[in-house]
Amino acid sequence: VEILGRVSITDIEAREYYDTHLEEFTNPVTVTLREILIAVPAEGGALNVARDNQAKAAAAAARARVLAGDDFGQVASEVSDAASGANGGLIGPIALADLAESVREQIEALEVGAVGQLERTTAGYQILKLASATHPTPTPFDDVRESILDNVFNERRLRALAEYLNKLRDEAIIEWKDEGLREAYEQRLAEETSGT
Q1: With bands split at pLDDT 50, 70 and 90, how would you rate the model's confidence at 1?
Q2: What is the average pLDDT value for the chain, to the nearest integer?
Q3: N or C end: fewer C-beta atoms under 10 angstroms in the chain?
Q4: Is 92 left (phi over 0), alpha (psi -120 to 50) or beta?
């Protein structure tokens, strides 16, 4: 009670915390994709050039259909070997940062609704379409105000409690009856001080 009475946080301090930690309250960029994958099966670990060429031609034909106006989801349902083919090639929404770097670079170059180039992956030939994307948007201050007040108050309370305990410890007169307990106590204090 003595400690809690001395710890407080104002709305102004909460707003300052929000402004300086805005990235904590910002939703990440997410994307929804559609994919078509024409698999290239490896035979005993070896690449079959004829099958690779056949898969590449099938993927190029699928991309040509989409570019000519066929519905991407319909084409994906008909020809894609990916699990997503069952739902029209739909993937996501997924955080852009969670995608592999090569996929992220390809997606970042596309406008919403655009179809990417034919890409060779370890699984086969892939075509991606950027169906939608969100922009990074901060959660409004009023929606996170209470959690900021609670979190910062708790941090300050714990800091004040640690300072109070250190003060009591420094003022205490301890008579050690067991040298091993004294050593364990001093080791624990050293760990707390070093933050381990």
Answers
A1: very low
A2: 83
A3: N
A4: left
Taking only the tens place, the pLDDT of each residue in 133-161 is 988 888 888 887 777 777 776 676 777 77
DSSP 168-192: HHHH-----S-HHHHHHHHHHHHHH
Q: Is 129 helix (H, G, I), strand (E, B) or coil?
A: strand
Task: Name the H helices within 25-140.
Answer: 49-67, 72-79, 101-108
Q: Using alpha carbons only, what angle is made at residue 43 by residues 39 and 45, rounded to the nearest 5 degrees?
A: 100
Q: Tell me the C-alpha distance between 195 and 193, whole Å.
A: 5
Closest CA to 5 of 140, 167, 145, 157: 157
From residue 53, give the alpha-carbon distance in Å to each of 40, 61, 167: 9, 12, 76
Could you tell me the sign of the dihedral formed by the alpha carbons of 44, 46, 48, 52, in that order?
positive
The residue among 117, 106, 107, 55 whose CA lies nearest residue 81 is: 55
Q: By C-alpha distance, which of 102, 84, 69, 99 is closest to 36?
A: 84
pTM for the complete prediction? 0.60
Residue 89, helix vs strand vs coil:
coil
